Model the fold of this input.
Amino acid sequence: MRASQITRRSFIRATALAVAGLGWLPLDRFASRADAQSSPPYQALVCVFLLGGNDANNMVVPTDSRYTAYARARQGLAIPPTQVLALGGSTPGYGLHPSMPELQALYDRGLAAIVANVGTLNAPITVEEYLAGAGVPLSLYSHDDQQNQWQSSVSDGGPLSASGWGGRIADLSAGSSGLTALSLGGNLLFVNGQTTRSVSVNPGQIDYSPGGPSEPFEGLLTQASQYVLVNGANSITANALQALRSLSSATSLGKLATVFPADSYGLGQSLKFVAEVISSRQALGVARQVFIVPLASFDTHVSQLATQAALLSALSQGIAAFYQATVELGLESAVTTFTMSEFNRTFQPNTTAGTDHAWGTHQLVIGGSVVGGLYGDFPILELGGPTDVDPDARGLWLPQFSVDQYGATLARWLGLQQTQLNQIFPHLANFAQQDIGFMATS
Done:
């Protein structure tokens, strides 16, 4: 947006996402700090949220004798066996969607893990308990509810459902390590804790640098109002803009040689911005950071094949470029990227060449500290089989792992202790296996 194009209305619209949820986030998280040199070693978690419910059944495909059952049930949505990108490593018999050669390469190098059949759960349940309505997550097949439950890790409406597990990591880490929580897609729950409020950034929307086109409008925020709420909102917005100005100044110095893809979804450029923020970590004075970057349009009820192919291509290229940027920064073992998505899609297609909402799904984890491979038992690909909870036998997989187990494995890598993990993930104690094992820890 050029300076001549900015009006008061466009400024407010452009900054709305940027200041959403900032609340009382201390500005010293964004200022250079003299004690940065004594901070703990830098680490970051970067979540790519696949909004809409990614069809993981076509993201990870069996290549052994199970392919016959896969093709039979998937019908016109089945990926031809000659197109599936076979995976090497210690777990043969699986492949990735043909749009994901970059992630195939990372997996084969031991830098990526597939965590099979993860879903919202508060405790382990059986198919029989599900059919009886016992222990079933609230609003299981609702987009909004399941997005919030993945981001909060709470599926029973408990008190922590109003905060995100990334934000709760920040609550416990900020005082000692200056953790920063950043969203690149609006005020997303994941990075808002009980006391921590994230900063939401919309890269490229407007220039927040000193003397930039936003500056003339900031004078409006200093004008006193007779309304207390207006003054409060102005103060929050002014603080947010100061934080964004510090962020903009720091990232302007963090340019990278790595080339990021210019995909139509904006994922590549969002991940480029995240990499620039990470490259500015010393100027920002942070030792821990948590990010969430959304990638939308996975709600593929109609004509799924072409839509998902384009989305998974953007995901694969974007994550591969981001990993290369961490290599450029010498931080490939200090930054871990992982996916989340509210649910899987039905194994059986619908009548419009698409799929409908399901449950247990597969997720990807990428980074130099990842112990590569496939984790968990793959669902039994049988409609109405022992892992299908759907009374109509369409293929809705009963999860093996909960969001708590998935998130706790990542949080433990950040150095959080067991008592802290139990605070962040309120139902973690219900699961015997609390570390899935896909992260190398010291």
User: Anything to note?
Assistant: The radius of gyration is 22 Å. The mean pLDDT is 85.
